[in-house]
Here is the input.
Amino acid sequence: MSPPHTEFAPPGRPGTPASLRESLSALRGYPRPAWKAAIACVLAMAFSPPALVTAVTFLIDPVAKDFGWSHSETLSIFNIPTVAAPFVLPLAGRWVDRWGARAVAVPGTALYALSTAAVALVGANGVVLTTVLLVSTALGYTSILGVVYKVVSEWFPHHRGLGYSLLIGATSSLAGAALSPLSQLSIEHFGWRTTYLLIGGCVLLIVFPAQYFLMYEPLRAPLAPAAATDVPKGKDRPPHRELPGLPLGRALKTRAWWYTVLVLTVAAGAAMSVRLNAVSLFGEQGYSATEVSLSVSVMLVASVAGQILAGMVLDRSRTPRAFVPFMVCLVLGMVMVFVATGGMWALFVTMALLGVVTGAESTTGPYLVGCYFGMRAFAQIQGITLGVVSLVGIGVFPVLAQGAAESTGGYTATLVALTAAGLIVLALSVFLPAYPSPAAHDSDADEPAADSADERMGSY
Here is the structure.
């Protein structure tokens, strides 16, 4: 058995395993509390809002029929929390950075379970239903998404990319795929109200105990495994210690953050514009709705592969340019949209390329945040980054793409614009600033010196 790590160091250091076999073997060196926290993250992500959003597809019709609402009105009620809730992440990140992951996760998960079950009690009042759904989704983002990235970052510093992809991204995708048919069966046999009670019960009986008994952070960073194997609990646990790195305000002024947000937003926006408008887009090119639905499934499977591949590549790389090949996949995928005119393989290859990009993007974001800015305000910076990418890339881009297609009478101009945007951010990804020196994250000082921080992150 491989010896444990002598310290928890940021990825990209000289001590990073040189080969894939060594990297995977080094996983055995992490202490037991790290794997307990990993289990808690997996169980939490399995019932997180991104995983449960797959159930919305089957909830629209029964809720609309029950309350006598139109399909579009009901869809809007369920979509508002999905778009708005991620904006609690900066606040959740501030709490996690200040008080620690468990202090936020445990009470937040209990409230998330109760508010989710409370949806079953709402009557035919659109404002009340929207409010309850918004509160439930916001609590889910706070207690789960606001916590898991920080926990993985601190416990698995040599394998952050792999941790983000497997413990967070892939878990959410696979859980969503499993919950989709289960939700449909539950709604058909028990009704939508009972389904919400069951979901709330699962969160309370599965996620809450996992957060309470397993969710702990290292006592300090960097942390020796000897100090991590016996993590004090309850009153014996020392107060949460602020970690080294840049504060939120300083980080948001750097070119590194702006470049990262722009690249990730366009990558997500272009791919999601194709996915969410796939039926009408590819329908114009001669594909049936059934063929398009199969291609969307291919895209979802490819996104899981992209998450894992990006995690492995980033962990073994010492430069942010490791993301460049995935941006090449984006440009190739957008070009393939033009030539996918009837052949199933062309359609599947197109959607697979775009799926790889969406998966890689979700892993790359938190990885770059950790490498550029350290752990001091990681949860806050990651929360803002994820919120911007979600709102603009996933929320605004597809709507603008569809509107432009309707105004121009086709998708050609829209696709040309998205492809051009992909080429621009491909070039920009080549010029992503280099990671700061490891000494910046190892320092025990509360904040890196201003001159050093500006030189490392703001002058590229």
The CA atoms of residues 154 and 244 lie 12 Å apart.
